[in-house]
Amino acid sequence: MNYKIKKLNLYPKLDYNWNHHVFLGMSMNNKVFQSPETLVEIINLLALKSEACLILVGDYLHRYNEQIFNGISQEDAIKKCQSKGAELKSIFNKTIKENKLKFNYSYRDTESFLSHPNFKSKMQRFEKLYLINTKFKELIEYTVDVFLRRQSEIKIDSIKARELCVKYLLEEMVIFEILAEEGYIINVYPGNQLPIIKSICTGELKEISQELEKIQAVEIKFRPK
Asked: Measured between alpha carbons, how far is 151 from 112 in angstroms, rounded to an integer?
């Protein structure tokens, strides 16, 4: 199904200058990235709002979901995710070319962040916060609950599934923090942003990450065409 943009939800609700570096989260399971007509809507919006856009390809990060819902090994999950990421990038590139869109963009795969010199230490800090900060842990657990309730079937032990979901969220927060340090403070996603991210951006949850507090999380909301 194709969709038309209905509105934008901003967290916090401030009119930030989108000439700051913007990044768009490309999720492997988000169907809008498989719909050229819907992609045209998104690309035109980003081209209007910003001078350039980074497409954050969530292929490697998605390996956790493949393990949870398909019951496959991490090695097989990574291969499947990389293949899916390549497919979505191909659709994205083809959409721009066939519609002759003027859009300045580049890709960055989530696996590339593992080589960042501070990735490990940042991950350890978030893992520690998860253990000692009650509010942070509650929001992480809530986000996991919401995610798992939407799924029809889990192929692995439920405790292990929750552990992988937590790792996914913490790893994603590390990536967002690194991007924020690089100046990418406009975080755009076609759909719902993570509750934990919105809580930090709006100041509801403090003392977690000064860099994430600088981000504006943008939700693109759609209606069927």
From this structure: 28
